[in-house]
């Protein structure tokens, strides 16, 4: 005698049979697909209640094969720019009812990086946002399958992918030219870790100096720590003739200023310092920091908008051309940069 | 005539047959299980190479049903404490070859919260870290299935779960008593958003005042923005007799100090201000900030250690008792707090 049917847990087929629809229709229902009639929707809901059906992961995910979600690949989650970009991604994704999962890339080895990518793809995301703020993220981008919908934020230009460009190069150029315009003979640059590449703020600094027939001074390298920047400030304070610094970011600028002051230099009286990002503490710093505002949350939000339109196009079987969105920041003039002492 | 075998992609059964092991042994191999002999391991590796087999998601994940990974639930990814905790989690997980996926909780609705949880559980994580830094994360914890291995960081005490306690209450108490010990008649508190609860720094401040027979002054509430704290500083500067402030975190302390200075008050000459966290910019602030160091990365690392030992115990069929780890921070005395003006 066969076991009585009610002894086993109901499966998706039971729901389909009771609702008189196909299994794939139930699957679409479970995945919140819009492509399902109101009538079928209500019959399926009724069947699910009657059977006390609890969809398994397989029924909800693998049958349809795309659970609605956005994956974010980034090599950093804690720095101001990264965390604000992530916030923008999360906000826009939530507005569109896409859950977000953030995966920090592993930089220990090629295997570690591949393992991170595998884990992300195993989640079967609807699309992927790659925060290409450094080399590691650029490598990760290359390891992603061609087929998955993706969008890239920042970094060197991609020829065939949707991309948000923060125009760092132009911004670095503008900062440098602003300082030269104040009368400084030259501008020294302190880079962030991993800074560089043709589209970077550092490349913009070089381009501005070259365009103005200035020699390119040696770059100073700094970690992400303001305390290290302070130490660097102790050295830089004693460089002859140095009157202007373009710091790779605001935290470095704040540490540098403190280090310069430790050595008896005044900012901007003796040395002008400009930061980058417009960190929330920049305006309350002493002196209030002249910096370059980057709209990281907007980059995150627009990346998700591009990604969702691409996902939707894929679902309709359409192919969109690669889109390129430029988000120009703006110079925020406060009090940490002025004319050089010689011009006073 | 049957199609020639080489026309279809190899599946896990082909690997098992060629290596002369069971399908579940191949599955264990694909999931890096330690429970597999060196000999089987090498036969399987050989078979995979010969067949050019690429394991599908199903073969790797669902057969064994637990892909190795750690999920993190948090309502915030950008604030200093949250982002540093996440960094500690990521570092320790990477050391143990567990990929990490971070899910930001959705606070718009109960449905949104449930959707976040569903997405996390759909990834079938080996275990979950809940960063219980606020009410939302506490709610999310209640929605997690009982069966999944989990660990809680911070918040009110859990009776039956592994938990890391940052001892905020004791720290808030110590800060307040330090200020009273400097001779201040009372201590005003500016809370962070969502601050409160019996185990919070705010509760510690109240407890210290009560223990010293001081009236409890009205609390001041602030957003996370230093610029809002600065505005608050403009008001607080004009409160009669106020000489000591315990700020809910360092960014708020920095904004407050700037606001007090805007109104002609000196810190610590007229008013002492102590922060919380030991943010990287605290030491380079003017004046260098007296604050309370919290070891967030250690909280993240230790949470992962607890979680992994629990996961391993579950795999062995053992039940571990709930463990409770206290991580006491430390008062960092710099220059933003001193004796009240009357005592000079």
TrEMBL record, chains A, B:
Record bears the keyword Thylakoid: no
SMART domains (UniProt xref): HTH_LACI
Stretches assigned to the HTH lacI-type domain: 10-64
MF GO annotations: DNA-binding transcription factor activity; transcription cis-regulatory region binding
Keyword Repeat tagged: no
PROSITE patterns, sorted: HTH_LACI_1 (PS00356), HTH_LACI_2 (PS50932)
PANTHER family, A to Z: HTH-TYPE TRANSCRIPTIONAL REGULATOR GALS, LACI-RELATED TRANSCRIPTIONAL REPRESSOR
Protein name: LacI family transcriptional regulator
Protein source organism: Bifidobacterium myosotis
């Amino acid at each position: 005698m066969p076991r009585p049917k009610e002894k086993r847990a109901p499966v998706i087929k039971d729901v389909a049979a009771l609702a008189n629809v196909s299994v794939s229709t139930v699957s679409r229902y479970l995945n919140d697909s819009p492509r399902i009639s109101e009538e079928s929707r209500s019959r399926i809901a009724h069947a699910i209640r009657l059977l006390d059906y609890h969809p398994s992961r397989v029924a909800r995910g693998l049958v349809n094969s795309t659970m609605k979600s956005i994956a974010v690949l980034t090599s950093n989650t804690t720095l101001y720019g990264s965390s604000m970009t992530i916030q923008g991604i999360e906000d826009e994704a939530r507005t569109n009812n896409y859950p977000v999962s953030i995966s920090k890339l592993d930089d220990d080895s090629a295997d570690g990086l591949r393992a991170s990518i595998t884990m992300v793809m195993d989640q079967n995301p609807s699309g992927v946002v790659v925060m290409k703020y450094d080399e590691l993220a650029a490598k990760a981008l290359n390891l992603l399958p061609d087929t998955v919908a993706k969008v890239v934020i920042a970094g060197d230009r991609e020829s065939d992918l949707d991309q948000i460009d923060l125009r760092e190069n132009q911004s670095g150029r503008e900062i440098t030219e602003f300082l030269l315009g104040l009368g400084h003979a030259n501008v020294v640059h302190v880079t962030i870790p991993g800074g560089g590449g043709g589209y970077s703020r550092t490349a913009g600094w070089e381009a501005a100096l070259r365009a103005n027939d200035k020699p390119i001074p040696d770059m100073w390298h700094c970690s992400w720590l303001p305390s290290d920047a302070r130490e660097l400030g102790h050295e830089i304070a004693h460089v002859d003739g140095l009157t202007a610094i373009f710091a790779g970011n605001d935290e470095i600028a704040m540490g540098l200023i403190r280090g310069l002051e430790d050595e008896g230099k005044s900012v901007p009286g003796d040395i002008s310092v400009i930061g980058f990002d417009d960190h929330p503490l920049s305006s309350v710093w002493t002196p209030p920091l002249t910096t370059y505002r980057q709209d990281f949350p907007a980059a995150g939000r627009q990346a998700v908008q591009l990604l969702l339109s691409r996902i939707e196009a894929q679902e309709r079987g359409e192919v969109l051309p690669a889109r390129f969105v430029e988000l120009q920041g703006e110079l925020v003039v406060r009090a940490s940069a002025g004319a050089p002492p010689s011009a006073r």
